[in-house]
Amino acid sequence: MVVGSLALLWVATVAGGQNPAFIRDGRDVLIPGPVIPLGTAVSDASLSRDGKFAAWIDLDSERSYAARVAVAQAEAPVNAGGAPLFRLDTRTGQRTKLGTVPPGTFVVRFEFVGRSGDVAYVTADASGAKQVWFAPVGRTASAVTPVFPDGTVSVLGAEDARLAFVAFVPRPAGTVRVFRLTEGGVGEVAIPGEWAEVGFIGNTTTGAAVLQTSPVPGGTAKSQDWKIAYTTGAVAPVSEGERLDYVATSRNGRPYLVRALPLSRDASIPEDAPGVSDLVVTSAQGAAAGQVQLASGVLSVLAESLDQRGVIYVTSDGAFFRGLIPAGPTLRRTILRTDG
Residue 329: phi, psi to the nearest 5? Predict the structure, then answer.
């Protein structure tokens, strides 16, 4: 997990090993936070850019025992609809159900919008028809687009505001419709031409979303990227050779979260358990700089926050969230006094 822009990272224990491991950056002290269970059948999960919110689908949270047995016996699809989408405030542990997806439909994608924990998500039914919903923090989720026929839907949220774009193109090809979601309502902007596929690439540092449109395969037309301003909805093609500066979407050479061979194995985990590893916080300078263990018996990692302070992982017991948190005043004073 990245801790700011650390110049020096190390791990220590204090008071004879009685206090938890910590990471110190100057006068700042961070320790592993509590383990927060998310569910036993989490099919998808995401963390907001700053790691303050998590969102996930738990297929078993409202499924009857008989329905769970049917899924286990492969007599029913894993995601047959009715699975709710949840949101977690990772700082307080408060969990909110954003709404139960009606039977016959299921969530195919969800995205965080801005930094307040708002979520936009896409539902679909067996025919491929899709609809986009918006779930702001503190308000009930509601549909914000019409029901789209079978086609491609892409969603991208702004970095720092309650603004998002939804792009749709029907199959096999057609006009691209782009909806601009704001706190005041929904507007629509047009993309010239006829296209077969659409997909948002990312956000620029100047406050625009970049959408890529692809032509029908086999034709003479070329793919085209478009800049769409969040504040106005204005659309402009990206010219050939034009340089765009994108907002970072991944870590870059800083301390980071890694999966490692078990540092210590829980007695309940068989020695020959396949694919089991530990989650540790280490630094870009290598293990010599120290590391903090966050979890053991990890089967997979579902999501990591951009700042690497939060992670959603899966063990044999289900899915969990854990992150680094500031040490409390008493513990911080103890660590600083002991560590010097």
Answer: -55, -45
Angle at 249 between CA 246 and CA 252, to 5 degrees: 100
Query: Could you tell me the two tokens for 48?
Result: 């907001």
The beta-carbon contacts of 226-235 under 8 Å, at least 24 apart in sequence, are 226/191, 228/165, 228/178, 228/180, 228/189, 230/158, 230/161, 230/163, 230/165, 230/180, 231/163, 231/207, 233/180, 233/187, 233/189, 234/189, 235/178, 235/189, 235/190, 235/191
Give the closest residue to 38 by CA, choosing from 75, 88, 100: 88
Q: Which pLDDT tens digit goes with each residue over 223-253? A: 999 999 999 999 999 998 888 898 876 554 4
pTM, to two decimals: 0.74
| Residues 46/110, Cβ–Cβ less than 8 Å | yes
Distances 171 to 178, 215, 222 between C-alpha atoms, Å: 16, 12, 18
Helices (H) and strands (E) counted in the chain, each on its own, are 2, 26
pLDDT of residue 1 exceeding 50, the answer is no
Strand partners, 93: none
Mean pLDDT over 41-67 rounds to 75
For residues 119 and 271, give the distance between their C-alpha atoms in angstroms, rounded to a whole number: 40
How does strand 22-25 pair with strand 28-32?
antiparallel
Instruction: Indicate whether 193 pLDDT > 70.
Output: yes
E strand or H helix at 65, and its extent?
A: helix 65-72
Q: Which two tokens stand for residue 70?
A: 């049917």
In a 13 Å sphere around the CA of 256, the CA atoms on its Cβ side amount to 13
Which of 46, 113, 48, 34 shows the shortest CA–CA distance to 85?
46
| 29 Cβ contact list (under 8 Å, min separation 6) | 22, 23, 326, 327, 331, 332, 335, 336
